[in-house]
Amino acid sequence: MAGYTLILAILILGGIIATLGDRIGTKVGRARLSMFNLRPRDTATLVTIATGGMISASTLGILLLLSGQLRDGLFRLESIRSELASSQEQKQKVESELNAAKNEQEKAQQRLEQINKSLVQAVRKQSETQALLQTVENKFQKADEELKKASQQEADLLSRIQNLTKEQENLQNESSQLRQEKERISGELASISRDRETLKQKVDESEQRLIAIEKQRSELTSEIASLETAREQLIVSLEALRKGNVAIFADQILSIGVVRPNLSSADLRQASIQLIQQAERNARELLDFLPDQAPKEPVIKITEAQIEGLLNRIKDGQSYVIRILSAGNFLKRETKIAISADVTLNRQIFARGDEIATLQFTPNLAPQALASRLEQLFLLVSFRARREGVLANPLTGQVGNFPPDALTELFKIASELKSPYEIRAVAKEAIFPASSLTLELVIRQNGIEIARFS
User: Fold this and answer.
1) Of all helices (H) and strands (E), which one includes residue 52?
2) How far apart are CA 168 and CA 179, in angstroms?
3) What is residue 243's predicted lDDT score, i.e. its pLDDT?
4) What share of the chain is helix, strand, coil (3-state, %, to 5)?
5) I need a labelling partner for 335 at 20 to 30 A (CA). Which of 120, 178, 222, 284 fits?
6) What is the CB neighbour count within 10 angstroms for residue 247?
7) Residue 55's closest CA among 116, 90, 13?
């Protein structure tokens, strides 16, 4: 009701002030008054604005004067909002505490119900106990009479208890032993499992090795058959050697050539065929056919697979030395010659002046001892040259040679030396696998070169 009265008062007061403002504005307009050096019309407008401001100010003043809530809303809005937020937080906190308290209450209620149940059970048990107590009291008389008998039985029971105690201790010891035995068996089972895996792996490896051994056995069987054939051929060759009819010896070089690097497949094939054709010509010459008995077919038998195998070994674009060798001993006028191809990478093994071997000599050696010592030097040279890749003579097994006249001159100079010296074998020129090993022998004494022979 107070709100309606306030609104009614504001409306009446606004109407009165508006009416007064209108009349004042009218009078000012009619009187054509001027304020602040303004025109009369502007002065009337200013008076009207002032009147409207008074209406608003009076309205707001009445509202603030009569409504405490409005005053709080205008001047304490922020603090009210803060208090409201704080109240909200407190409300949430109280609600949380209330919920927790309800949960605690429910738990307490549940515990109370359990206690009540326990209490009912306890009361029931108490009744039962009282009944039992009464029964016990009734039986006490009889028990007292039987006490003497029970004393004897008690002694017997004590003895049995002691025995049972000992048995319990024994059982505990046995249990401990059984537990230890169980742990030991578990360890053994784990070890057996590991051993089983290991044995399985070994069995698998053994099976693989058996397969490899079987493969090797087959290869050895083939090799034995091949060796048997070679033995028979060797017997024939030995017989022929005795008769002096061997024309081509095993591993004899029939042709040799160097393949240049970076050749095309067609060029490699052409070079290989040329080497085989050269071997064919040399073999025919060595087999010493009579003019009217020379075979029309090639005497060297080679398959396309052998040619492809040779090409696969030299197709990587590097330079190789290829030697076509006799695969066995062959008699004069044989018409089927087996060959093999020896492929060696053509690289510089020794540069000019490289030392190949050195040997120390003592002075005043007898000619035979000096010759033996020089032979050892040549053997060292041959050994190192072959180890580095220089191809040896397949018949003699030696690498290179040395001129006899130079060797005679070396003997003459060395026999005149009166203090220890060394002889170095050096390469006279760059040496490749297929090169002829040309040597220079240098006599040095106390680090000074005495003489050089080649």
Assistant:
1) helix 40-66
2) 16
3) 45
4) 65, 15, 20
5) 222
6) 20
7) 13
The residue whose two tokens read 């000992």 is: 166
DSSP state of 432: -
Residue boundaries of the structural domains of the chain: 2-75, 149-244, 246-345, 355-453
Task: Determine contact, residues 362/414, Cβ cutoff 8 Å.
Answer: no
In the block, tokens 């504001």 appear at 10
Q: Name the DSSP class of 36.
A: T
Sign of the C-alpha dihedral, residues 105, 111, 114, 115? negative
Q: In whole angstroms, how far apart are CA 138 and each of 128, 133, 143, 144, 173?
A: 15, 8, 9, 11, 45
175 contact partners, CB below 8 Å, separation of at least 6? none
Q: How far apart are CA 285 and CA 330, in angstroms?
A: 13
Identify the segments of the chain with pLDDT beneath 70. Answer: 1-7, 9-10, 21, 25, 28-36, 70, 72-74, 77, 136, 140, 143, 147, 150, 175, 178, 199, 203, 206, 212-213, 215-245, 392-400
The model scores a pTM over 0.85:
no
Q: What is the pLDDT of residue 32?
A: 66
Element (H, E) at 53: helix 40-66
Strands (E), 140-269: 246-248, 253-259
Over residues 343-401, the pLDDT tens digits come to 888 888 888 888 888 989 988 888 888 888 888 888 888 888 888 877 765 545 566 67
Cβ-proximal residues to 245 (8 Å cutoff; 6+ apart), any chain: 331, 332
**What is the chain's length?**
454
Q: Which of 359, 373, 435, 352 is nearest to 401 (CA)?
A: 435
Tokens of 200: 């399985």
Q: How far does Cα 2 stand from its chain's mean position? A: 91
Tokens standing for residue 389: 């890749």
| Among 352, 383, 372, 379, residue whose Cα is nearest residue 414 | 372
The rounded distance, in Å, linking the Cα atoms of 374 and 274 is 41
Whole-number Å distance between alpha carbons of 191 and 320: 58
Q: Give residue 398's pLDDT.
A: 60
The SS3 of residue 229 is: helix
> What's the token pair of residue 409?
């001159």
- String of b and e for 20-49 (b: at least 16 CB within 10 Å)? ebeeebeebbeeeeeeeeeeeeebbeebbe
